[in-house]
Amino acid sequence: AGRKELASAEAHRVEDGGIKDVAWCPNLSRPYEVVATCGAGAALWRVELSLPSGGGDRREHNPTCQLQQLKELIPAGERCCPIWRCGWSLTGTALALTPE
C-alpha cells in the first residue's frame, strides 16, 4: 500500500499546488471505480474497495482500498497553467479538463 500512496503523492505534489478537483466516473457495472484528479497536472486512477466477506467479527476484517494510477494525462512538471476543474460526461465516456 505504501508504494501506491507514494505514487499518488508524487502525481500532485503540494509544492506544485496539490489537487484542485476530483471527479468520479459514472460506474457502469465495473468492479472498480475510475477517478480523475487535477491540479498542477491531471491523472486517471483506478480505485478498488474490498469489503469484508462472510460472517464473524467485523473488527477482524478491515476493508481495504487499492489505488493504481492508470494514466497521467498532463504531467505535473509541465509548465502550463494549472487545471482547476475536471468532470465526466453522464455516460463516463468523456472527461473535460478546464484550466484557469
What is Rg?
Answer: 16 Å
Q: Approximately how much beta-strand content do the residues carry?
A: 35-45%
| Outline type | globular
Number of helices: 1
Helix content: 10-25%
Lateral arrangement of strands in the main beta sheet: 1-2-3-4
What is the element string, with H for helices and E for strands? HEEEEEE
Unreliable residue runs: 1-9
DSSP E strands, number: 6
N/C terminus separation: 34 Å
Largest sheet: 4 strands, antiparallel
Structural class: mainly beta
The averaged pLDDT comes out at 79
Distinctive features:
1 helix, disordered N terminus, mainly beta
Task: Present the secondary structure layout.
Elements: H1 2-11, E1 19-24, E2 33-39, E3 42-50, E4 64-74, E5 83-88, E6 95-99
Antiparallel strand pairs: 1-2, 2-3, 3-4, 5-6
Descriptive account of the structure:
Helices cover 10% and strands 44% of the residues. By secondary structure, the chain is mostly beta strands. A 4-stranded antiparallel sheet has the order 1-2-3-4, covered by helices on one side. A two-stranded antiparallel sheet has the order 5-6. It is globular, with a radius of gyration of 16 Å. The termini are far apart. Mean pLDDT is 79; it is low at 1-9.
Short recap of the structure:
This protein has 100 residues and is mostly beta strands. It is 10% helix and 44% strand.
